[in-house]
Amino acid sequence: MELINVVLAAFIFVVSAVYLFIRNKHNYWKDNGFPYAPNPHFLFGHAKGQAQTRHAADIHLELYKKFKQRRERYVGMSQFIIPSVFVIDPELVKTILVKDFNVFHDRGIFTNARDDPLSGHLFALEGNPWRLLRQKLTPTFTSGRMKQMFGTLWDVALELDKYMEENYRQQEIEMKDVLGRFTTDVIGTCAFGIECNTLKTPDSEFRKYGNKAFELDLLIMMKFFFASAYPSLVRKLRMKITFDDVEEFFVKIVRETVSYREMNNVKRNDFMNLLLQIKNKGKLDDSDDGSVGKGEVGMTQLELAAQAFVFFLAGFETSSTTQSFCLYELAKNPDIQERLRQEINQAIEENDGQVTYDVAMNIQYLDNVINETLRKYPPVESLNRVPSVDYVIPGTKHVIPKRTLVQIPVHAIQHDPEHYPDP
C-alpha cells in the first residue's frame, strides 16, 4: 500500500510540475507586460491544427488580421509551448531584417553537425561559424556565377520541352509533378553535378529521397520546434532532424562526385565545382573573397555535402511551387498569358533567336509576373529570426529575450490590401 501511495504521489508531482511548466510558458508574455495573444491551446499554443487540419499561413493570417485591427505592432504568442513574437508592423520587420541584422542574423534552425552532418549548412549555422561560411560562400551566388550555370539549366529545359511535346496531346498532365521533376533535374545537375533524369524516370532514387527530405507531420514538426527551442539539450541527447537514409544517400552522392572529379580533374559550370574550389583552396579561383587562414582547410567534405543538400532544400520546393502557381495564374488570366508570351518571343527574336541569361533577366513583364506570383503564393509563409542578445523593441520598453523565436508572417503581410491596394 505504501508503494502505491509513493507512486501515486510521484505521478501527481510530475503531472503538476509539467502543468505548471507549460502554463508558465504560455503566460510568459502576459506576466512580462508584453502585448500577447490570449487563449493558447494547452499543448499546441496558437499553432493548433498546424500540419493536420490547417496550414500555418491560414493560422497566421487570422492572427495578423485580428491584432492589426487592435493596432498592435507585434504580439507575444505560443508556438506549441514555446514563447515567440509575432511581428505585424512592416517598419518593425524592416528594422529586424535590415537595420538590426547584426542582432537577428540567426534563424533559430537546429544544427548538430557532429551527429547530423547535413544540418551544418549556411541557413542553420550561427555566430562565428556562420560568418566564416557565409564569407566563403557569398561569391558563389553572384549574377556572373548564375550566368555561367545558365547553359546547364537550359539543357534540362530542353528536356522539359521534349517531354511536354511527347505527352501533352495524349493525356492530361499534372504540372506540379512535372515541374517538381524538372526542378529536381536542374538542382541535381547544378548542385550535385549528376543527371537525375527524373523527367524520364519519376521513381528515381534522387526523387525518392528528395521527397522524403520534405516529409512533415505533427510529430516531426514538434520535434523540429523542440530541437530549435532547446538545442543544447537536443545535442546532448544526440538527436537528429535528418532521416538516416536521406543523409546516407546525399552524403554518398557528394562523396562519389567529389572523388570522381578530383581523380579525373573534371570541371563544370555548376555549384559543385565552386564548392570544390572552396573545399580545397578556401576561396574561388578568381576571387580574393572568402580566403582562409594559412594551413586552414576551406571546407570539409561533410560541410560541402551540407551546402549541396541545403541548395536542394532551399531550391526544390520553392522553385517548383512558384512555377506551378505561375502557370495556374497564367491559365486563369489568358490576357496576361498572351502579353507575356509576346514579350518573351519579341525578346528572343531581338537576340537572333537565342535564349540567354541576359535575355531572360531583361524581360520586365516576366519579372512582374513572377513577382506577383511570389506575392500571392510565397514559398515560405513566414520568416523566422532569433536575437543573439536581449533586444529592446525600438520606441518601447518591451524586451525580446535572447534566442526567442521571432516570426514574420510573409504571407499575411503580402495579402494585406493596405500594402497592396491594387495588385
UniProtKB/TrEMBL annotation:
Membrane topology: Peripheral membrane protein
Main subcellular location: endoplasmic reticulum
Subcellular location: Endoplasmic reticulum membrane; Microsome membrane
Matching Pfam families: p450
An example Gene Ontology molecular-function term: iron ion binding
InterPro entries: Cyt_P450, Cyt_P450_E_grp-II, Cyt_P450_sf, Insect_CytP450_Detox
Cofactors named for this entry: heme
Keywords, in A-Z order: Endoplasmic reticulum, Heme, Iron, Membrane, Metal-binding, Microsome, Monooxygenase, Oxidoreductase, Transmembrane, Transmembrane helix
Domain of life according to the entry: Eukaryota
This protein's GO CC annotations: endoplasmic reticulum membrane
Protein name: Cytochrome P450
